[in-house]
What we know:
The protein has a single domain, classed as NAD(P)-binding Rossmann-like Domain (Rossmann fold), CATH 3.40.50.720. The protein is built from 9 helices and 7 strands, in the order βαβαβαβαβααβαααβ. The protein has helices at about 20-30, 40-50, 65-80, 100-125, 140-145, 150-170, 190-195, 200-205, 215-225, and strands at about 10-15, 35-40, 55-60, 85, 135-140, 180-185, 240. The chain has a 7-stranded parallel β-sheet with strand order 3-2-1-4-5-6-7, sandwiched between helices. Helix 1 (about 20-30) links the parallel strand 1 and strand 2 (about 35-40). Helix 3 runs parallel beside helix 4. The longest helix has 26 residues, at about 100-125. The protein is globular, with a radius of gyration of 17 Å. The mean pLDDT is about 95. Nicotinamide-adenine-dinucleotide (NAD) binds next to helix 1, helix 4 and helix 7.
Amino acid sequence: MNQDFDDRVVVVTGAAVGIGKATAAAFGNAGGTVYLVDIDADAGSASARAVENATFIHCDLTEEDEVAAAVEAIDQSSGRIDVLVNNAGGFPEALGLEDTSIEEWHRILDANLTSVFLMTRASLPLLRRSEGGRIVNLGSLAGQTAGWQTAPPYVAAKAGVHGLTRALATELAGEGITVNALAPSAVLTERIARLRDESELAATAASIPLGRYQSPEEVAEWVLFLSSSAAGFMTGQTVSVNGGRFMA
Ligand SMILES: NC(=O)c1ccc[n+]([C@@H]2O[C@H](COP(=O)([O-])OP(=O)(O)OC[C@H]3O[C@@H](n4cnc5c(N)ncnc54)[C@H](O)[C@@H]3O)[C@@H](O)[C@H]2O)c1
């Protein structure tokens, strides 16, 4: 597997904590020039300081103007993007349908789906300057099967991410840009540890045939693979990395 990202310009959204932070660190270790884009300035700056050759950019990815400014800053300093990882998202609470306000509905859809649209559209001119641009979107098992311990707008948003991945892959294939998604199931990030009590955490681990949570670092390895030249003939796919919890 080619995981050499020397001289590659990599943008990871939602990189302040969790999977995004681990992914930014993995690209940094593989030689990439890494931009960490996040709404959380304190955690994002701290995470960027821990990665070699990394810059933090503060941005609310649901705001068109802020996304444009973030991409402009990357253009000014690097002039292109080789890899865009649309990772920002998640959900703060597993609310059921009747407890979901319209504000919450929009918040979750915007953070998980609209952010992918806005960031990808703004980044496209810079991705076109790359020799073989790569886009990797963080989808979810939730978008494939719904399941439990999740929330309706999150399920809808992640199903949307998988569909948008196929639409963008189709549109951009002629330009040599690949677009793929990852669908993890249960990754033990700080957010998940906060959301669930011990018995829920244990029940989730027991529901996974491989018997455990995935680590953020394991997800990062898949992002690097999909961003590598080894994955150059793969596009429009949603890759299930879920410990056997869902087998299509
Ligand atoms: N943890 C899991 O079990 C799991 C499973 C499947 C998919 N995923 C997906 O993987 C991705 C990362 O998950 P995580 O658990 O590391 O999440 P997390 O909550 O730990 O991190 C998400 C990051 O996104 C940032 N973010 C959120 N909204 C933003 C916005 N509007 N603008 C800029 N930044 C924003 C947050 O500040 C945070 O740093 C998410 O898309 C999530 O849905 C996670």
